[in-house]
Each structure stands twice: as structure tokens, then as C-alpha cells.
């Protein structure tokens, strides 16, 4: 793509690797160059926190606001009741209104770390599509909105086709999701003069639907922009670790574990991740990413510090780095490690080291913990752990015990006072 953008936002995200596709580069760029543009990304409230897989789009909203435009975080209080079928092998489980409300509250706390909802000039807006979806009259909606949608065209979308090709059920409930999401874009344009929807590349069909619908109903030109599916250099989907999702909530994943996730990036990913997940100048990201030998580890520490500072603050990043140095360089215990606190009642006559590996999250199952020990991958207070039948009693736990899985994953076990 040879287009050279004039607007600061498009130039920034293009240079930093955020763009997969855009419905009209030039028209959108001109609108951004002319004045403040309002843009949104939608988030269904399916969990209590966002995870690292969402972070690329959150950073794009942050750059939008930093370059003088208005971001909208649209919470799917309405659409979550239906469920997005995009590229899923099955239906999403349906959540109660109370669960949806709780999830939205958790996600709002994460957004507040990256976006400013209180500034005067171009404040971020937090909206909920339940505001207009919950009160829809079904017959009027079918007449005014449903008539603009071709079922033939909807069946051609990859997210639908992949389900049908596998002969997996696609319910009428889920089929309606595409219409509701398109209607969101129409309503945001009508209510907030929103000109742009952004999202992951898997949302392209939904975004185009909204653009077509708004053009038909309001005779207004609006735009869509997608980010690439982000994978690590070894082909894994971004945002997954050995223990599952890398959550952005400090209650679901400690700042140290978040820091360690970035510190464990592969050498080939460092420069690219710095451009996307930090605000360092592009030239500096390229310089750090090109380092070789042991110097690339210094670049990984910078990446971990930058990403952690944005989410949890500079103090949390400094503490995490200090803990990592204590654990890795000095062989210490590290007070900021993920900690499992046990009561004397829980320990009773003793608790097996296999059970502790599972409860600290260093192994998913007892079978995996035993295999880790058999493969010489587990350590107890930095000494090789060879006995899968080992049981620790109160006396053994009178001082904190450090458990390790491999070289990079550690946890503390201690008795609560």
C-alpha cells in the first residue's frame, strides 16, 4: 500500500503497523486532517476483563485521542445478550444481565488506564449499546432496518461460511448479531456524528454492513479500518500464555506476571511489539529490535517496562523489574511473585507439592505437574524437585517457599499469618 497519509493519526498507526485494511484511505485521511473525527470500537462484555489480545485496538484508540480525535469505547450490553458468531466453532454461552453489568464494570477500569474520559477538548466516551437496542420494537426494526440486508450476502461472509462449511449450527439468534452491530454504527453516527469504526480484521464484514446500512438510511459516508490478526513470530495467537489468557486486570493477573509476559517475548517480536505496545519513537523501536546477543534482553526489559507502565503505572513496572532481577540474577525469592496463601487448616497434616504446582497455576493438572517433575522442569527454592510424592507440612512452610516451572515461571507459597 503506497498511500502517504497527511493526518497525524493515519501516519502514526500506519508507521507503527496497526493497519490491515481500510474502506477508503484517502477520504478517511482527509476527514482526519480536516478536524476532530469520532471513532469507535465495540467490545462485548463476555469476561470481567479485557486481555492482551484486545490491547492492539486499545492502543489504537489511545493514539486516536493523542492525535486530537475522539474515541468511543462501545460496550455491548445489548449485543452480549445475543453473541458474536465471528470465527467461533460454537455458540457463546448466554450471560445474565447481572453478569454482563459486572463484566462491563471490570472492563471500564481497564479502559480508564489508557483513555482520558474527563479531558475537556476531546474526551473519550464510554457508551453501551443496550441504550438503543434494549428498547427496539421488533416489527419496526424489521421494517426499517432488516429490509436493507441481503441474506445471500450475509451467508457469504467468512465468519458464517466457516461455520456452515463445518456443518455446525448457526442459530437465528447469532445471525441477527450482524444486523445489530451494523445498527450500532448507524446509531453512533446519528447520535455522536461517529465517522469511523475500527476493529480486528475478523470484524471486516460487520463493519462493512454498518457502512452500507448508514449510507442507505442516512445517506452518509462513513468509514471502516481494521487491524491485522497479531501472531507471535512462532505463529501463536497473541495474548495467550502457558497459563491461558493474559488479562489486563491486576486482580486477574498480577502486574509482575504481566511484566514477565512481555519480558518473555521472542527476539524476533521485540521491535514490532515496541511499535504497537509502547509509545517510544519508531526509530528507537527499530534500534532496540535490531539488537543481538544478550543486548536483546535489555530491549525486552524496556518493552516489559513500557507496556506495564501504561497499564499498571511506573511504580508497578519498577517493582516487577526489581523482582525479576532478584529472582533471575540473585537467586532470591522476590516478594512480588504470584503468591498462594494457605491457612494451617488447609495444610493439615501436609500438602503435596503436586497440588501446590496446580494451585499456584504452574501446572494445569496433577498429571501435568507430575510430568514436569519427571522431566526435571520443577524446582523448589531453586533446587531440582525430583520427588512427585513430596508432602510439605506446616514446618516446611514456616518461611515462604518458591516453586518454579522451567526457568521463567515462579510462584510463592506461604502460610497466612
UniProtKB/TrEMBL annotation:
GO CC term (a single one): cytosol
Keywords: Aminoacyl-tRNA synthetase, ATP-binding, Cytoplasm, Ligase, Nucleotide-binding, Protein biosynthesis, RNA-binding
GO BP of this protein: tyrosyl-tRNA aminoacylation
PROSITE patterns linked: S4
Binding site for L-tyrosine: 40, 177, 181
Localization of this protein: Cytoplasm
Primary role: Catalyzes the attachment of tyrosine to tRNA(Tyr) in a two-step reaction: tyrosine is first activated by ATP to form Tyr-AMP and then transferred to the acceptor end of tRNA(Tyr).
Protein name, UniProt field: Tyrosine--tRNA ligase
Organism: Pseudooceanicola batsensis (strain ATCC BAA-863 / DSM 15984 / KCTC 12145 / HTCC2597)
The encoding gene: tyrS
Amino acid at each position: 500500500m503506497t498511500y502517504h497519509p497527511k493526518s497525524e493519526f493515519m501516519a502514526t498507526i500506519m508507521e507503527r503497523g496497526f493497519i490491515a485494511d481500510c474502506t477508503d484511505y484517502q477520504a478517511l485521511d482527509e476527514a482526519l486532517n480536516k478536524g476532530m473525527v469520532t471513532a469507535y470500537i465495540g467490545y462485548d462484555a463476555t469476561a470481567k476483563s479485557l486481555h492482551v489480545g484486545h490491547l492492539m485496538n486499545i492502543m489504537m484508540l489511545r493514539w486516536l485521542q493523542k492525535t486530537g480525535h475522539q474515541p468511543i469505547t462501545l460496550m455491548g450490553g445489548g449485543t452480549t445478550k445475543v453473541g458474536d458468531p465471528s470465527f467461533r466453532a460454537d455458540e457463546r454461552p448466554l450471560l445474565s444481565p447481572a453478569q454482563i453489568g459486572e463484566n462491563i464494570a471490570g472492563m471500564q477500569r481497564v479502559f480508564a488506564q489508557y483513555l482520558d474520559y474527563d479531558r475537556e477538548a476531546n474526551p473519550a466516551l464510554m457508551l453501551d449499546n443496550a441504550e438503543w437496542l434494549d428498547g427496539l420494537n421488533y416489527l419496526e426494526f424489521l421494517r426499517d432496518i432488516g429490509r436493507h440486508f441481503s441474506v445471500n450476502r450475509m451467508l457469504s461472509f467468512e465468519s458464517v461460511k466457516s461455520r456452515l462449511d463445518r456443518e455446525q449450527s448457526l442459530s437465528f439468534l447469532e445471525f441477527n448479531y450482524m444486523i445489530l452491530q451494523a445498527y450500532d454504527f448507524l446509531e453512533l453516527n446519528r447520535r455522536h456524528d461517529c465517522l469511523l469504526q475500527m476493529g480486528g480484521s475478523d470484524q471486516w464484514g460487520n463493519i462493512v454492513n454498518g457502512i452500507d446500512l448508514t449510507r442507505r438510511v442516512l445517506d452518509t459516508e462513513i468509514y471502516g479500518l481494521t487491524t491485522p490478526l497479531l501472531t507471535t513470530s512462532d505463529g501463536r495467537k497473541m495474548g495467550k500464555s502457558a497459563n491461558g489468557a493474559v488479562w489486563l486486570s491486576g486482580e486477574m493477573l498480577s502486574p509482575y506476571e504481566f511484566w514477565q509476559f512481555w519480558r518473555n517475548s521472542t527476539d524476533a517480536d521485540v521491535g514490532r511489539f515496541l511499535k504497537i505496545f509502547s509509545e517510544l519513537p519508531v526509530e528507537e523501536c527499530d534500534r532496540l529490535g535490531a539488537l543481538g546477543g544478550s543486548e536483546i534482553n535489555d530491549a525486552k526489559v524496556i518493552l516489559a517496562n513500557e507496556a506495564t507502565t501504561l497499564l499498571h503505572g511506573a511504580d508497578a513496572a519498577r517493582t516487577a523489574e526489581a523482582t525479576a532481577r532478584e529472582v533471575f540474577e540473585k537467586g532470591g525469592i522476590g516478594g512480588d511473585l504470584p503468591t498462594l496463601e494457605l491457612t494451617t487448616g488447609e495444610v493439615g497434616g501436609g500438602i503435596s507439592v503436586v497440588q501446590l504446582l496446580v494451585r499456584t497455576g504452574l501446572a494445569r493438572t496433577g498429571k501435568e505437574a507430575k510430568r514436569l517433575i519427571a522431566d526435571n522442569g520443577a524446582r523448589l527454592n531453586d533446587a531440582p524437585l525430583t520427588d512427585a510424592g513430596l508432602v510439605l507440612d506446616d514446618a516446611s512452610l514456616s518461611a515462604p517457599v518458591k516453586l518454579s516451572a522451567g526457568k521463567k515461571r515462579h510462584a510463592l507459597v506461604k502460610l497466612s499469618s
